[in-house]
């Protein structure tokens, strides 16, 4: 993988987030094979996604932020705490402003500012909200290479991209299949499903560009992405995965997702 280190970190961030977008599209393509997703399976998949994001927040983002601040002679916990809270606060603001609707809820339960947008658009925006911090996290992780161009940093960024890609697969299906159930054509359902991941390459490039241009912000940016991801997990993924009777499955999925992401990060990083 030495040749990857010779590439621009921003280009690597773009390629990695295009991969995560592709995984979203592959998940959305399940609509061509299924019209329904078993609720138990959906809870399991959402739990898995939550576990991946929780593990990635620490192993791939917060821990490197603390180590980086310490290496630079800063107080280790300051960038981690400040960035983490800013990231969560940013998503809190977006959540309050951006119109969106969670799966399984009626149109009048839409969150954000009031709008006359179609239900399908609001459903896609709900998943798009999840993908902003995911793309940002991958971009910032590759932006680390601008400060520490070594195999350890590269492996950690690749592990994060792989983990995010894995959990994007069920998220893509979680958009397209319910839309199909509501009467949309398979093609339109797929289109909306994969569109929910378009924001990841955009956020990824912006994240990498930011830390590439302003390297002292890197520990804060890593923690910012972690805070944003944890906000999504607690506000969106876990509550959605706990709807219904088989809540134990979502818990098992969370444990499994955390383990997979931890394994990827520790083994590759």
Q: Which stretches are poorly predicted, pLDDT < 50 over at least 5 residues?
A: none
Structural class based on helices, strands and sheet pairing: mainly alpha
| Number of helical elements | 10
Rg from alpha-carbon coordinates: 18 Å
Based on CA inertia axes, which overall geometry fits? Answer: globular
Largest sheet: none
Mean pLDDT: 86
Question: What fraction of the residues are assigned to beta strands by DSSP?
Answer: under 5%
Helix percentage range: over 70%
* N→C terminal distance: 13 Å
Give, in order, the helices and strands.
Answer: HHHHHHHHHH
Query: What count of structural domains?
Result: 1
Number of strands: 0
Report on the structure:
- By secondary structure, this protein is mainly α.
- The protein has one domain.
- The protein has helices spanning 2-5, 9-28, 39-71, 77-97, 119-143, 151-181, 186-195, 199-213, 218-241, 247-268.
What brief labels describe this structure?
269 residues; mainly alpha; 10 helices; 0% strand
Topology:
Layout: H1 2-5, H2 9-28, H3 39-71, H4 77-97, H5 119-143, H6 151-181, H7 186-195, H8 199-213, H9 218-241, H10 247-268
Helix pairs in contact: 2-5, 2-6, 2-7, 2-8, 3-4, 3-6, 3-9, 3-10, 4-9, 5-6, 5-8, 5-9, 6-7, 6-10
Summed up:
This protein has 10 helices and no strands.
